[in-house]
From TrEMBL:
This is Methyltransferase. The lineage of its organism: Eukaryota, Viridiplantae, Streptophyta, Embryophyta, Tracheophyta. Its EC number is 2.1.1.-. It is a single-pass membrane protein; Single-pass type II membrane protein. One of its GO terms (biological process) is methylation. It comes from Acer negundo (Box elder). It is found in: Endomembrane system; Membrane.
Amino acid sequence: MAVKTPPLILKLFLTIILVSLFYFLGSYSSSSNSTTTTPLHDHLQNPPSLNCNSTTHVSISPPLDYEPHHSLSLPPQPPQKLLLFELCPKNFTNYMPCHDPSREINFTRNRFFYRERHCPGAHQRLKCLLPKPAGYKKPFSWPQSRDYAWFNNVPFKKLTVYKKSQNWVRLQGNRLVFPGGGTSFPMGVKGYVDVIRRIVPFKSGTIRNVLDVGCGVASFGASLLDYDILTMSIAPRDIHEAQVQFALERGLPAMLGILSTYRLPYPSRSFDMVHCSRCLVPWTHYDRVLRPGGYWVLSGPPISWRTSYKGWKREAKDLEKEQIILEDVAKRLCWKKIAERDPIAVWRKPTNHKHCIRKLKVLKSSRFCSTSDSDAAWYTKMDPCITPLPEVQDIHNISGGSLEKWPKRLKKAPPRITSGTMEGITVKSFNEDDRLWKERVSYYAAFSKHPVWVMNVVPFDAKPNTLAVLYERGLIGTFMDWCEAFSTYPRTYDLIHAHGVFSMYMDKCDIVDILVEIYRILRPEGAVIVRDHVDIILKVKGITDRMRWNSKILHTEKGPFHPEKILMVDNSVAAS
């Protein structure tokens, strides 16, 4: 069979989202709708780094011919006119269905609940395609995008004025420039990170996954890439106007998120470090997502209040009271303060709860959560309690098991699998899945030569739910329900990969809504790879044709007689 290289993939995809992703270990199920959440990272040498200087190549089968081949002559059929999707009005260019400010007025401001996800019902969802901003240009290639973005792509000036003294972002001609400043590091993030790394072992390989809360334009997360550390940066859509959108335009992992009423959409024990720079949120709720032995880094009021209260224009006695409360809460969480150096303070979570159990019996002011599923996080309400760590036999053991240092942890079966707590997944099936996705990714493209970061998206109700396994491997991702919109701005991702997602959601919601959402979050000139049963693929193609996308149906590596097929979509000629 002749091989053909489709032109749509002849470019490097900066950021990739794996949507569906019903299973992380797709190979242990022989069904056609098994899915995966980590195919690309399995084949990467340096996952957090982004590189757009080379060309990505694909060598796969030619488009399939679904026309009948028989000798009977039939009368010609009149051509059918496609009912194309219309473009949304221009004022929907930056529309986010679940973070729509026009809907926020319907919800209480108590605990910032109005800034949580509030999605429209099925009958209220848009059936039109979001237009690009006027003058939109292809984003800068990495690593240039870390420092520059086109203003027309994110045409918001408020941050350039409101945060001018803190050097978040500047407007120079038609470019936005990111000098690396932040609320706690107006003179640049490098010196700020240098202070932290003298306390937290960035270069040891023990710190891989970091959560940055109230991230600004993600300059902190961008700086940690130099240490091979992958940072999930989150912030709400708030008065700072599009701070997360700036981060995404820079090519950095970021999501809309807030600690208000619900848990963050990540499993328990996901992050080696959590950072908060004047993020003004109830920071004590991070105990659940912080790993045993993980670090909590805090800067801003009341830290260093003795030398900073005048600059903050605050009363020293008020700040001192806040510090006392802060220290007391950390004590009741069983966290140990290991350092306070201007401008930061660092606490460390215990590696297990042996001592904490005894301490809480004495204090009688804190309690362990009674929930049976500490990983549950999709619209799961937060409680003022301590998430219990897995039990250990010895005081020196690490709850949940010890993780390998990065990058060894990427390839080795993580503790949740080796301990047998992930029902249905064994070390053998893990290794088989690792081999399978190496084969599949090499079939798609030579991604191993081009470092990218991947947002792994796992349906919240997937069984087994493997997002926690992903984090133990040093990857990042989020829970999701694809019957709703994603917590991100339009034009976020360069490539979207969907394995089995449409089969999974076919009877749950309208797949048209899912494809319209994919259109919203895909960058112009981006691409989509859909892997599913041939019947589903044909239905999806019928919809993407109406979206003005070029698409081709291809065989998988399983050959022409297997019902699983690939739909390769090129968005480069989509309507503007």
